[in-house]
Design brief:
Layout: H1 2-14, H2 19-22, H3 25-38, H4 42-49, H5 53-59, H6 62-65, H7 82-93, H8 97-110, H9 114-125, H10 130-142, H11 153-166, H12 169-181, H13 189-211, H14 218-226, H15 250-260, E1 289-291, E2 298-299, H16 302-316, E3 344-345
Helix pairs in contact: 7-8, 8-9, 8-15, 9-10, 10-11, 11-12, 12-13
Length: 348
């Protein structure tokens, strides 16, 4: 009798329904949408899809894929395949702006499908996607994908202005230089200078917000110990304050890895932008501007040049066959080639 009881109990446990099957699809959609929007890598989401057929079916619905964030779409260049391409296209069809921008950049620069890449980036830009707006501005300024005489400076300025109005730091900086130099727009030195200061202020406060949790009481302890004031807007990166380098968009890492790892050749005489966080290649010889002091670096934009100057090139820039020269005044502006347009040659 005891044995029979045990058998009956075991049978009841086996026949107990799976609670997962009882969950409604809309609840699973909500969970998977949250996961794909906050995933730190594509594998975080793909591993869930491989768990069972139901999660795979629900996870590939348009309502879920439309929420994919940049890190969930951050395919590695070494892992690029037809399946990765299809996944990005599937996200594009749902109207995901990050997917439009990511696949647009890959097609334009890596797969050399200029028209399709531009079209995808334009699709994101029309929905006010700031990185797409700025990338299209860089293409217009350089005439990328075409001849040198195909540059459209006014279109570049207009795209920069739109991205700057959304708060894109690189676009604000680029627009400030255009106004200072009268490049594609009527010269307005005072307004251009204000925009450069605004760009650095935005850069500073973004850096502070990123490190606030790690150093929440640092400035207050410093002020209490030294009697100094808490740092504020004068401590900007162009004026001697070393802020952290901005976070690089995953697609820029993809471009850099694509060309540096040998997945695809650049072509004879073509160069990558010298800023390590960019990855944009030239589409024709001497497309990008080079530093007129050392002649060893070249940049696709003033924004890349400004970041690279502050993080690396300022310590390395030396005229050929000449001793190390003074970087300038204490605020570092004299040595910053981003301020003086005459210190760039070629390109623009």
């Amino acid at each position: 009798m005891v044995q029979r009881k045990k058998l009956r109990t075991c049978r009841k446990l086996v026949e107990k329904p799976d609670l997962f099957d009882a969950l409604p699809d809309d609840l699973l959609e909500c969970v998977l949408s949250t996961l794909i929007s906050s995933a730190s890598s594509p594998s975080d989401f793909i591993n869930v899809l491989l768990t069972c057929k139901r999660l795979n079916r629900v996870g590939l619905r348009p309502t879920v894929l439309s929420q994919a964030g940049p890190k969930a779409l951050a395919v590695k260049a070494k892992n690029w395949s037809d399946s990765a391409h299809r996944f990005l296209k599937r996200c594009v069809f749902t109207g995901n702006l990050e997917a439009c921008y990511t696949l647009g950049m890959i097609r334009f620069y890596c797969l050399q499908n200029r028209s399709s890449g531009t079209s995808l980036m334009a699709k994101a830009a029309m929905k006010s996607h700031a990185p797409a707006l700025y990338s299209l501005a860089v293409i217009q300024f350089n005439g990328s994908g075409g001849a040198k005489n195909e540059k459209d400076l006014r279109a570049g300025v207009a795209l920069c202005a739109r991205a700057a109005s959304i708060g894109h730091v690189d676009a604000v900086r680029e627009l400030g230089h255009c106004l200072q130099d009268g490049y594609g727009v009527r010269q307005n030195i005072e307004k251009g200078r204000r925009l450069l200061i605004e760009a650095n202020a935005r850069e500073f406060f973004q850096s502070v917000s990123k490190t606030r949790t790690r150093h929440q009481s640092y400035y207050f302890q410093l002020a209490r110990a030294t009697g100094a004031q808490i740092p504020c807007s004068p401590l900007l990166s162009d004026f001697g304050y070393n802020v952290e380098a901005p976070e690089v968009h995953p697609v820029n890492n993809f471009l850099k890895e694509w060309f540096e790892s040998g997945v695809s050749d650049l072509g004879n005489g073509l160069r990558l932008c010298s800023y390590s966080g960019c990855g944009r290649p030239e589409t024709r010889v001497h497309e990008y501007r080079r530093c007129s002091v050392c002649g060893k670096v070249n940049y696709c934009s003033r924004a890349c040049q400004a970041i690279d100057w502050k993080t690396r090139h300022k310590r390395e820039c030396v005229p050929p066959l000449a001793p190390l020269i003074n970087d300038g005044d204490a605020d570092g502006l004299e040595g910053m080639v981003e301020i003086a347009p005459a210190e760039f040659v070629g390109g623009h």
